[in-house]
Amino acid sequence: MHLDMLSPRGLSGAPVIREDLSEVVGVVVGDRIIELAGESFRFGEALLLDALRSARSAATGRRPLAEHLTR
After folding, report:
1. Are 28 and 3 in contact (CB under 8 A)?
2. Res 37 pLDDT > 90
3. What is the side-by-side strand order in the sheet with 15-18?
4. DSSP class of 64
5. CA distances from 3 to 11, 40, 65 (A)
6. Whether 4 contacts 43, CB under 8 Å
7. Contact present, 27 and 47 (Cβ < 8 Å)
8. pLDDT at 8
9. Domain boundaries, the chain
C-alpha cells in the first residue's frame, strides 16, 4: 500500500493507523522515492494487516503468521 505521507528512514515497523477509527490497519515496511520538480521525496510503503496475517514462510512452519499471533 502506498502511503501519502513522507517517510523518513527508520520508520519501518511503525503502525499505520486509520485516524478516523484509531485503528491499526498496517505496518510500514519501506519507502519509495518520488522525484518532483527536481527534488526527491521519500514516501512510505506499508503492508495491510490482512496480508501480514496470511504471510507464510519457513519461519512460520509454512503456516499463516496469524496462527502464531495472540489476539
Report:
1. yes
2. yes
3. 2-6, 39-48, 23-36, 15-18
4. -
5. 12, 16, 24
6. yes
7. yes
8. 85
9. 2-68
- Residue 16 in grid coordinates: 499505520
- H helices present in the chain, as ranges: 49-53
60 vs 32: CA distance, rounded Å: 28
For residue 71, pLDDT over 60 is answered with no
Note if the pTM is more than 0.85. no
* Single-letter amino acid, residue 66: A
> Would you call 5 exposed, middle or buried from its count of C-beta atoms within 10 A (0-12, 13-18, 19+)?
exposed
Cell of residue 49, nine digits: 494487516
Mean pLDDT along residues 24-52 = 91
**Residue 54 parent element (H or E):** none
